[in-house]
C-alpha cells in the first residue's frame, strides 16, 4: 500500500508542478512535516516523496500534501490526489 501512496504523491502530485511551484511546496512542507530545511532544499521530487512518507506515514503524507496543494491553490492537483487516495482506500476495504 505504501508504494501506491508513493506513486500517487509522485505521479499525480509532484510531477505536475514546475520547479518554482516545487519550491513553494517545499516551503509549506516545512510546517506540515518534520523534515529539516537542508534536506528539503536538496531533495528532488522522488526524494521528496520518500521524505514526506518517512516523516508522516504514507496515507498521512498524501493528506498533508493535499492540504499544501490546496493552500497553494493548485486545486486540480489536490482534487486528483484526493480522488486517487479515496480509490486506494476503497480498494483496501474490499
From TrEMBL:
Swiss-Prot/TrEMBL GO biological process terms: activation of innate immune response; cellular response to interferon-beta; inflammatory response
Pfam families in UniProt: PYRIN (PF02758)
InterPro entries, alphabetized: DAPIN, DEATH-like_dom_sf, HIN-200
Keywords: Inflammatory response
Domain Pyrin: 1-87
Record-linked PROSITE patterns: DAPIN
Record-annotated membrane-spanning stretches: none
Similarity comment text for this entry: Belongs to the HIN-200 family.
Protein name: Absent in melanoma 2
Taxonomic placement: Eukaryota, Metazoa, Chordata, Craniata, Vertebrata
The gene coding this protein: Aim2
